Amino acid sequence: MLTRRDTLALGLGATAVATLPMGAFAQTADEVMATYTGGATPAEGGVTITAPEIAENGNTVPIAVSAAGAVEIALFATGNPTPPLGRFAFGEASGAPTIATRVRLGRTQDVVAIAKMADGSFAMARVEVKVTIGGCGG
Amino acid sequence: MTDVRPRIRLPRSASAGDSILVKTLINHDMETGLRRNSAGETIPRQIINRFTCDFNGRNVIDCALEPSISANPYIEFEAIVDQSGDFVFSWHDDNGEVYTATETFTVG
Prior knowledge:
Number of strands of chain B: 7
Number of strands of chain A: 9
Helix content of chain B: under 10%
Structural class of chain A: alpha+beta
Order of helices and strands of chain A: HEEEEEEEEE
Oligomer: heterodimer
Strand content of chain B: over 45%
Largest sheet of chain B: 4 strands, antiparallel
Helix content of chain A: 10-25%
Distance between the termini of chain A: 39 Å
Radius of gyration of chain B: 16 Å
Structural class of chain B: mainly beta
Shape of chain B: elongated
Strand content of chain A: over 45%
Number of helices of chain B: 0
Shape of chain A: globular
């Protein structure tokens, strides 16, 4: 027979299970970014992300990034099932360390840009994009 | 993908040494591998996983793309045109195909 206490415990268990996947994703994004920087903590600043504050359609969210002195820029969507968005390496004929593209965002989340500098250091920027309709097929 | 058609936009003119804005787009589904069809089966991943651009044999940009890049991937960047020459673009598909495009740019 279910006592009042049992019912309460059941409810708590269900809540824990329900919140688990989101926590797992966030950790994955952090891990992915740490792998990219080789564990180094990127400096804040020096990287500019241009993204809409509110994206009505998560299927195509325009993102532009520029980072003076960068040799490569990596983009991450912290709340997507697969956080990496892409890595953009600038060659000798590049005019400026800047790129613009369109990405899928499954839900409201932070977009992170990490720039790898010529001296091997890293810089980053983070912006939140609110998504009205998600872009991951659901 | 049967009719993959790259599209490239360059400025009409530029002087030697200028940095120009290059806009590229290719029609491609960028299937993430996360979606299911109506029968409930997972649709296999098929994306453009790499994009490169060279000008006169010198690399401008080399991109590693992930499934979270939108369908019909659009990439915009800057290139230095020190002289007239050819832009060569390549898109690498998961299925092993490489789609290429060449655009001649004349400075002056």
